[in-house]
Structures are given as C-alpha cells and as structure tokens.
Amino acid sequence: MKIALVTGVTGQDGAYISELLLSKGYKVVGTARRTSTSSYWRLKYLDLLEDKNFILEEMDLTDLSSISSLLKKYKPDEFYNLAAQSFVASSFISPLSTSQITGMGVNNILESIRITKPDTKFYQASTSEMFGKAQEIPQRETTPFYPRSPYGVSKLYAHWLTVNYRESYDMFASSGILFNHESPLRGLEFVTRKITSSIVKLKKNLISDFQLGNLEAKRDWGYAKDFVEGIYKILQNDEPDTFVLATGKTFSVRDFLNLCFDAAELEVIWEGKGINEKVFLKSSGKEVVSINKKYFRPAEVDLLIGDPSKAKSKLNWEASCSLEELCQIMIEAEFDFYENKKNIFIL
Ligand code: NAP
Ligand code: GDD
Predict the structure, then answer these.
(1) Element (H, E) at 54
(2) Does the C-beta of 245 come closer than 6 Å to ligand 1?
(3) Spatial contact of 180 and 40, defined as CB atoms under 8 Å apart
C-alpha cells in the first residue's frame, strides 16, 4: 500500500486530495498543526476521520524536527505540501510569519526529505500569485514572475527552492503553479466563499447587507476537485517538472458576484461607480452590497489567466467545470450547509 503524507490537511485542497488518495487505495498521513480551536470541519464534512487508512498527525511547517520525525516514522512514497499561510491579505499584516511558514517552511521539508528519505516524491503548492503584475497574457510555465504580496514572494522562494532541489540533488520535486480554485470547502475569508455565504445569508434574512473591496480584479477560477486531480497527476508524471493548472478563462469579481446572484435566483440592480458603487435587490429596492476600502490591498494583482496547455499535453489534465457551474455548486452547498446543519463550524 502506497503512503502519502499530506500537509495542510485541514485546508480545502488537503481535505480533497486526501479523499482522492484514499479512493485510490493509499494510506494517507494528514498533518495539522495544533490550534486552540478545532479546525477539522472539512475532514468531518468529507468523513475522512472515520476512514481506517487515514491517520492524523501533528506537524508544524516551521518546526524541522516535527517534519523529520514523521518522515522517519512513515517513510512516505509521496509528499504533498499544501500547508501555507495562504491568505494574501493577511500576508500584508503578518509578512514575517508568512515568509517563515509559506517560504522557509518548504526549506524545512525539502531538507528533511533530502536527509531522511530522498526518494520521496515531493509536490509543492505553487501559485499564480507568483505572476502578480503579469508580464505576459496568458501566463504559462515560462512567464517571468512578478509577485505583488509577501505571500507571492514567499511562494516564489519556495517554488525556486523546489526547482533547485530537483536540479541539485536529483530529487523528484515538482511544482504545480495553480490558479485560483474554489469549492464549498473554501475558507470564508476568500472572496468567492464570502460571496456565496453572504448571498445565502441574505436570502435567509440572517444579514441585511455585506461589503466587498476591489470588484475589477480578474481571476482564472476553477473547481478545487478538478485541481486536486491535476496535483495527483503531477506526481504520477515520469519526470519531476513544473506545471500550470488553470481553466484558461478569466472573470472579474463583479462577474462572480453576478453569477452567484443568478444562481441564488436574486435579481439585482447596480448603481454608482468605483468606491460608491452599490447593489440593490430588484424586488425590495434594499441595498445589499457596498464597497469598503478596508478590503483593498496595498498592491493588487489585476489580471490572472493561465495557459494550461502543458498540463493538457503531458498529464492529460484539463479543468471540466465552468464558472457558472462552480457558482451553482457553491450556492447549492451553502443552502445545504444551513438547511442540513452538516457542518456547524462554518456558521
Ligand atoms: P487553505 O485552505 O488556507 O489551507 C492551508 C492549510 O495550511 C491549512 O490546513 C492550515 O492549517 C495549514 N497551515 C498553515 N500554517 C501552517 C503551519 N505553520 N504548519 C502546518 N500547517 C499550516 O489553503 P488551500 O486553498 O487548501 O490551498 C492549499 C495550498 O495551495 C496552499 O499552500 C495555498 O497557498 C496553495 N494555493 C492555493 C490556491 C487556491 O486557489 N486555493 C491556488 C494556488 C496555490 P490551519 O487549519 O491550522 O490553519
Ligand atoms: N478576500 C477578499 N475579500 N477579496 C476581495 C474582496 C473581499 O471582500 N473584495 C474584492 N476582493 C478581491 C481581492 O482584492 C482579489 O483581487 C480577489 O478578490 C481575490 O481575492 P481572494 O479570494 O482573497 O484570493 P486571491 O486571488 O488573493 O488568492 C487566492 O488565490 C491564489 C492563486 O491565485 C488564494 O487561494 C491564494 O492562496 C492563492 O495562491
């Protein structure tokens, strides 16, 4: 039985890739750091904690010894590093801890693998945020990087480190440059989940309105379940390499908001411009969305659109879910969360 070690298992991608690996017959060692409040809601939602081939272990990316001891204990065939301080906005507030976790943390892993079990295949969760102020449209594996946040800079360090360990020590160290991918299991602080959660709360009269930041930013948004299939394929490739995973389409935050209002069957009217822009419900005339400067970032990534053709030709991977379908899935799941109370932690 193959053993996979998955860091960041309490996060969106960690939970979904664990589900995928278990379905393929792996033993999965999922690692989480100690937190004072339980953060296992995604693991419970996907029923992972009951699976006899799923083991939960404690590990912190900033602590080399916690990584080495798990490598010695389980000798994994594959190592998926999905842990990070992954919220761009927080990286401006806590740039040092972001670089220690998201950047240096990867150095801890690669050094541990090199010393302890160098034949472990390693996957690094790189990001389209490394393209930042995009130097080419669409962005591909060869596009020059220009990160625009402490998060993007930390991820770029981790990405080059992964390439460097591949080239220096002949390790199977691969990097997936993933564009935004969303799902019902997305954290509530990210704009897509904030929107789906708020719209359903509006419909259920739990809130009267909500606020957003920059509606002009454009992202290449895909479905997380498609993307974890791509992550898996990256480690099954014959050679370690770098791959862009994206849908190849881009939409603004405003587009996403409109598609979610449609999915929730709410008709809206837009009025005003820039910071004064507002959204009203057509039925009641009530103001439901306004703009708040506090959600703007010190430096923005204006336009992301990926070229996934290398992943298509070498991995036979492509995104299958349109943005309309994704909004539908997320809105439906949101109603389900409220109506069936499957997961009380997200409320
Ligand atoms: P997520 O939901 O924010 O999950 C991040 C995970 O990292 C959580 O399990 C978190 O644990 C863990 N973590 C944070 N600091 C840690 C530390 N010091 N030690 C150990 N674990 C720590 O992120 P995601 O959306 O699943 O993304 C997975 C990975 O892909 C991340 O590295 C992200 O940066 C990258 N990525 C994501 C996207 C995307 O669109 N989702 C795109 C490109 C790249 P807690 O539960 O304790 O906080
Ligand atoms: N979070 C948030 N909240 N973002 C907002 C808001 C708001 O109220 N209003 C507008 N936005 C804009 C942000 O300014 C940004 O341009 C866009 O919505 C997306 O923001 P997020 O959902 O926070 O995601 P992100 O694109 O910054 O980062 C995500 O994708 C990266 C891949 O490109 C994260 O998952 C990163 O970890 C990942 O690397």
Answers:
(1) strand 54-58
(2) no
(3) no
